[in-house]
């Protein structure tokens, strides 16, 4: 595994531009330097104190941490209910009229949901789930657009102690079916569809197709967002507005163990089979809510907007669980940033006086491309903190974000974490940390990270290597669903005793972490994590394809773009039309975000003598740069043939 630095970050690494905290901001900041010292003195004691202070327990825990590497249990013996902590306790404390979500539909319709509304809706939805036979320990699949019923459905599961598995609405029927099967979900909650770029995006047909292959699902609950014709299967499908609306508003939350599974979230790894990442209750809620309050400096009257989709971990942790546990007022927007025009987000910020924005560098770069005239049309003076997540942010985007969205005043927090980590692990603390554009700065208090070489030895400051974590943290994944061996193998075997994140990183002389991207066969396209092998198997699944190799090519907007090299079966000729057909096939098998942007037909692929495809050389070809070491190639002429090939079609 070679660490290939991102050229832009590499360049900025030595430039040393710094942004010390503004003293006025620091004076009111939630985070204080002392947190680091307290956590270092006794990290278990640190988390235990926070767990007692921040969460409402039905039964207090006896043991803070049981660590049998690599299996962690946090707050053992304790019992609580996550939905109660996110909703009911706030209503009890007199915050029933506080807005939980300002929801904005793409066509311009809006809904305001207070904490009291949320309590009623979650209780009713939970009662509906009960009527459909859902019990503690069951798995419920959720496949929905960004409508308020999505967090309500998640919280309804949590209220009953059932685990949800949310599948992003952009995934295909086939991908949904695979996840339902792995989770053995008994209920699917979906919607007729949602709005995207001014058009109706129908979800129910894909759900129906998936259900044909999902015998475990007994019932389907369907939210009506669009109206119009939606085929419903009698006995299986139930409308949300019929079943949920007639339920009682009384549904006592079920206390569950700290380690009860809260949810499963599937993510791409280095094989074609997605992994069901298991998150549990107490530690996860503590980790997400505490990081949320410290890193975004959230105050009771802030209006906070995380612009991710709830279908990804960012939405789980920082639209639903972390912010709700903190009784935050959030914005939830259904649609695309360019609909009806490229100032939609800035209009929302102005309308709702949003003070904290959290989004991906891909979005920032897309806005940059459209120019600053769009944000300039709007009053963005409410902004206080800006966050970035999902991929390395290049310094140019960081600076543009701060200047044009943050008015040159706001702190920018570049937050590094993963589906597996559950919570942010590397990030500045606004008001405390001096930031450097392009660096995620330092591990959060209580987190022990390191950069190691191929043998697992710590690399001195100034050097680069592999990012690892050396001690458990409360929101960490508890495993891969149903596959403890794969969990050990994937995360804990590369460097014994350490969690290997799959990312390369460098630390400068000041100890700042600079993330360098994935070092394995995982791409990051628009902040979406996509396995090269998953796309390859989708291509090979097509009748004309003999073999395929997929690499990520650097892209100025999406971070990486998918570049597919395809070898066709004997007698089949490559053509633009076949290229389109293959792209469509990938969309059908996995989803539109996995559609290759570049596709090259190639008579052969470069391989080692043992037959392994040399993706490193393909990356060189895709980037149009000089080839690295070719000595292990079985047949050196292959590369020349591919390079001579002019047929790389860009979409
Ligand atoms: O490569 C890192 C990148 O996103 C990966 C995790 O993807 P996912 O599980 O989908 O979660 C994304 C949202 C938390 C990481 O292995 N990544 C995430 N945040 C950053 C990042 N790379 C650089 N800088 C970040 N701030």
Characterization of the model:
This protein is α/β, with parallel strands linked by helices. Among the domains are: 82-254, 3-Layer(aba) Sandwich (Rossmann fold), CATH 3.40.50; 522-648, ANL, C-terminal domain (GMP Synthetase, Chain A, domain 3, 2-Layer Sandwich), CATH 3.30.300.30. Helix content is 32%, strand content 24%. The strands form eight sheets. It has an eight-stranded mixed β-sheet with strand order 12-11-8-6-7-14-15-23, sandwiched between helices. Strands 5-4-17-16-18-19-20 form a seven-stranded mixed β-sheet, with helices on both faces. A four-stranded antiparallel β-sheet has the order 21-22-24-25. The chain is globular. The two termini are 30 Å apart. Residues 1-12 have low confidence and may be disordered. Bound molecules: adenosine-5'-monophosphate-propyl ester (PRX). The site of adenosine-5'-monophosphate-propyl ester has 21 residues, from helix 12, strand 20, strand 24 and strand 25.
Highlighted features:
32% helix, seven-stranded mixed beta sheet, 31 strands, Rossmann fold, 651 residues, single chain, binds adenosine-5'-monophosphate-propyl ester, alpha/beta
Hetero groups in this structure are:
adenosine-5'-monophosphate-propyl ester
The average pLDDT is: 93
Q: Which value, in Å, is the CA radius of gyration? A: 24 Å
**What is the structural class?**
alpha/beta
* Dominant shape: globular
Query: Architecture of the domain at 82-254 in CATH?
Result: 3-Layer(aba) Sandwich
**How many strands appear in the DSSP assignment?**
31
Helix content: 25-40%
The separation of the N and C termini measures 30 Å
CATH domain fold name of the domain at 82-254: Rossmann fold
Q: Give the strand order, joined by hyphens, for the main sheet.
A: 12-11-8-6-7-14-15-23
Biggest pleated sheet: 8 strands, mixed
Number of helices: 21
CATH class membership of the domain at 82-254: Alpha Beta
């Amino acid at each position: 595994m070679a660490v290939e630095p991102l050229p832009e970050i590499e360049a900025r690494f030595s430039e040393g531009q710094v942004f010390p905290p503004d003293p006025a901001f620091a004076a009111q900041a939630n985070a204080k330097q002392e947190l680091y010292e307290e956590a270092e003195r006794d990290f278990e004691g640190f988390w235990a104190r926070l767990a007692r202070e921040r969460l409402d327990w039905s039964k207090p825990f006896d043991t803070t941490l049981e660590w049998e590497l690599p299996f962690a249990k946090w707050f053992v013996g304790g019992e609580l209910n996550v939905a109660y902590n996110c909703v009911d306790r706030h209503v009890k404390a007199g915050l029933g009229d506080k807005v939980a979500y300002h929801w904005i539909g793409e066509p311009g319709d809006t809904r305001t949901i207070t904490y009291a509304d949320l309590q009623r809706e979650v209780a009713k939805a939970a009662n509906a789930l009960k009527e459909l036979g859902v019990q503690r320990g069951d798995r419920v699949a959720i496949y929905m657009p960004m409508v308020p019923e999505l967090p309500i459905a998640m919280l309804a599961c949590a209220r009953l102690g059932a685990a949800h598995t949310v599948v992003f609405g952009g995934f295909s029927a086939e991908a949904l079916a695979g996840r339902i099967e792995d989770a053995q979900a008994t209920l699917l909650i979906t919607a007729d569809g949602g709005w995207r770029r001014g058009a109706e995006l129908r979800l129910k047909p894909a759900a129906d197709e998936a259900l044909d292959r999902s015998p475990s699902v007994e019932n389907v609950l369907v939210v009506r967002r669009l109206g119009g014709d939606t085929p419903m299967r009698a006995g299986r499908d139930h409308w949300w507005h019929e079943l949920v609306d007639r339920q009682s508003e009384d549904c006592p939350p079920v206390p569950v163990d700290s380690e009860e599974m809260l949810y499963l979230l599937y993510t791409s790894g280095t094989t074609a089979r997605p992994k069901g990442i298991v998150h549990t209750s107490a530690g996860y809620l503590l980790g997400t809510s505490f990081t949320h309050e410290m890193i975004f400096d959230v105050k009771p009257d802030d209006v906070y907007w995380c612009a991710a989709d709830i279908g990804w971990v960012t939405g789980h942790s920082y639209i639903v669980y972390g912010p709700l546990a903190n009784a935050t007022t959030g914005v939830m927007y259904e649609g695309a940033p360019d609909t009806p025009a490229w100032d939609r987000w800035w209009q929302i910020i102005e309308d709702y006086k949003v003070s904290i924005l959290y989004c991906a560098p891909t979005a920032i770069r897309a806005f940059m491309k459209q120019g600053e005239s769009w944000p300039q049309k709007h009053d963005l003076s409410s902004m206080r903190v800006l966050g970035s997540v999902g991929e390395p942010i290049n310094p140019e985007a960081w600076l543009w974000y701060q200047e044009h969205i943050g008015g040159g005043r706001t702190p920018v927090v570049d937050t590094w974490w993963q589906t597996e980590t559950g919570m942010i692990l590397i990030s500045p603390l606004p008001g405390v940390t001096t930031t450097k554009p392009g660096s995620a700065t330092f591990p959060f208090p209580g987190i022990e990270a390191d950069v190691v070489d191929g043998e697992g030895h710590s690399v001195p400051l100034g050097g680069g290597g592999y990012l690892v974590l050396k001690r458990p943290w409360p929101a960490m994944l508890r495993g891969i669903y149903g596959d403890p061996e794969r969990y050990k193998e994937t995360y804990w075997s590369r460097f014994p005793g350490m969690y290997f994140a799959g990312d390369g990183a460098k630390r400068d002389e000041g100890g700042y972490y600079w993330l360098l991207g994935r070092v394995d066969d995982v791409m990051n396209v628009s902040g979406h994590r996509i396995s090269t092998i998953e796309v390859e198997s989708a291509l090979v699944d097509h009748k004309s394809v003999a073999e395929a190799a997929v690499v990520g090519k650097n892209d100025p907007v999406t971070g990486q773009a998918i570049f597919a090299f395809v070898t066709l079966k004997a007698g089949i000729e490559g053509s633009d039309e076949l290229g389109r057909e293959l792209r469509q096939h990938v969309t059908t098998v996995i989803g539109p975000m996995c559609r290759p942007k570049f596709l090259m037909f190639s008579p052969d692929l470069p391989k080692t003598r043992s037959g392994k495809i040399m993706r490193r050389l393909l990356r060189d070809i895709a980037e149009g740069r000089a080839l690295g070491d070719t000595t292990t190639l079985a047949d050196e002429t292959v590369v020349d043939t591919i390079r001579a090939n002019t047929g790389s079609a860009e979409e």
